[in-house]
C-alpha cells in the first residue's frame, strides 16, 4: 500500500519545523488554508455576525431583544460544537454570557447611570470567568484549563469549525493539535505557567476595572462627564493590558520554543537510541 505524501513528497509528520513553535503541528499548504478558513468562520459567527446583528436590529426593536437575537449565532456554534465535536466552544460561550449580561442591564436602563455600568458588568463577568477557569476542576475525563489555553488552541484549530484532514492516519488535524497541546500541558511547566499567568492577568485586570468605573459613574456630577472619564479610564487601562500581553506573549513563545524544543529533541534522541 502506498503511503500518503504531502506537497514536499514526504509522509505527513507530526514533528515541528525549525521555525515553528514546539506546540504547532507541521502543516501542508492545503491544511494551512483550511485552518485559516475555519478560524475565519469561527471569528465571523462568534464575534462579527453578533455585532452586526446587534447594531442593525437595535434600530428596529428594543435593545434587549436585539441583544438576545444577536446571541443566537454563537449559541448555535456552541450547540454545534457539543453535538459534532463533544466540546464546548469557549469563545462562543463567553460571547453568549456577554450578551445575556448586557440584556439584563439593558432591561434596567431607566437610570442613565446604571446603563453606563453595562460595560463594567460585562468586563467584570468575563474577568470572573477567566479567574474561575484557574480552578483545577476535574469531572470524569474533563479537567479545567485556563481559558487563555482554550483561546490559543482554538486559534490553531478553528475551534468548533476545526479542520480534520483526511491525510492524517490516526486522527483529524484539529484532534492532533489538541492532543499535542495536552501532552505539553502535562509535561512542561513553562507551558502551564504561561497560560496560567495570562489568564490570571486578564482576569484580575478586567475585574479591577469594575470598581474604578463604578466610582467614576457614581461620583461625577453629570452623565456627560461620567461618559468622558469612564472612556478615558477604560481604554487607557485596556491599552496597558494589551501592551503587557504582547510583551509577555513574545517572551512566553520564545521560552516555549527553547525549552519544549530541547525537551522534544532529547525525547526523540532517547527513542532513537533504544
From TrEMBL:
<feature type="transmembrane region" description="Helical">
    <location>
        <begin position="120"/>
        <end position="137"/>
    </location>
</feature>
<keyword id="KW-1133">Transmembrane helix</keyword>
<feature type="transmembrane region" description="Helical">
    <location>
        <begin position="228"/>
        <end position="248"/>
    </location>
</feature>
<feature type="transmembrane region" description="Helical">
    <location>
        <begin position="195"/>
        <end position="216"/>
    </location>
</feature>
<keyword id="KW-0472">Membrane</keyword>
<feature type="transmembrane region" description="Helical">
    <location>
        <begin position="90"/>
        <end position="108"/>
    </location>
</feature>
<feature type="transmembrane region" description="Helical">
    <location>
        <begin position="64"/>
        <end position="83"/>
    </location>
</feature>
<keyword id="KW-0812">Transmembrane</keyword>
<feature type="transmembrane region" description="Helical">
    <location>
        <begin position="35"/>
        <end position="58"/>
    </location>
</feature>
<protein>
    <submittedName>
        <fullName>Uncharacterized protein</fullName>
    </submittedName>
</protein>
Amino acid at each position: 500500500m502506498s503511503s500518503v505524501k504531502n506537497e514536499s513528497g514526504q509522509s505527513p509528520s507530526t514533528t515541528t519545523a525549525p521555525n515553528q513553535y514546539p506546540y504547532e503541528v507541521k502543516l501542508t499548504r492545503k491544511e494551512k488554508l483550511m485552518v485559516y478558513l475555519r478560524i475565519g468562520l469561527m471569528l465571523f459567527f462568534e464575534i462579527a455576525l453578533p455585532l452586526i446583528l446587534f447594531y442593525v436590529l437595535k434600530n428596529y426593536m428594543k435593545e434587549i431583544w436585539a441583544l438576545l437575537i444577536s446571541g443566537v449565532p454563537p449559541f448555535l456554534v456552541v450547540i454545534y460544537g457539543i453535538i459534532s465535536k463533544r466540546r464546548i466552544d469557549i469563545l462562543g460561550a463567553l460571547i453568549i454570557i456577554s450578551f445575556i449580561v448586557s440584556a439584563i442591564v439593558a432591561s434596567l436602563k431607566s437610570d442613565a447611570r446604571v446603563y453606563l455600568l453595562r460595560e463594567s458588568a460585562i468586563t467584570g463577568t468575563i474577568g470572573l470567568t477567566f479567574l474561575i477557569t484557574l480552578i483545577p476542576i476535574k469531572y470524569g475525563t474533563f479537567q479545567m484549563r485556563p481559558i487563555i489555553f482554550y483561546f490559543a488552541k482554538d486559534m490553531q484549530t478553528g475551534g468548533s469549525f476545526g479542520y480534520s484532514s483526511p491525510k492524517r492516519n490516526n486522527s483529524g488535524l484539529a484532534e492532533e493539535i489538541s492532543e499535542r497541546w495536552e501532552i505539553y500541558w502535562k509535561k512542561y511547566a513553562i507551558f502551564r505557567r504561561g497560560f496560567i499567568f495570562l489568564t490570571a492577568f486578564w482576569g484580575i485586570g478586567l475585574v479591577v476595572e469594575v470598581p474604578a468605573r463604578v466610582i467614576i459613574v457614581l461620583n461625577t456630577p453629570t452623565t456627560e462627564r461620567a461618559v468622558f472619564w469612564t472612556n478615558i479610564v477604560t481604554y487607557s487601562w485596556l491599552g496597558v493590558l494589551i501592551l503587557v500581553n504582547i510583551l509577555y506573549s513574545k517572551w512566553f513563545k520564545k521560552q516555549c520554543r527553547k525549552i519544549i524544543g530541547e525537551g522534544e529533541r532529547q525525547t526523540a534522541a532517547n527513542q532513537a537510541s533504544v
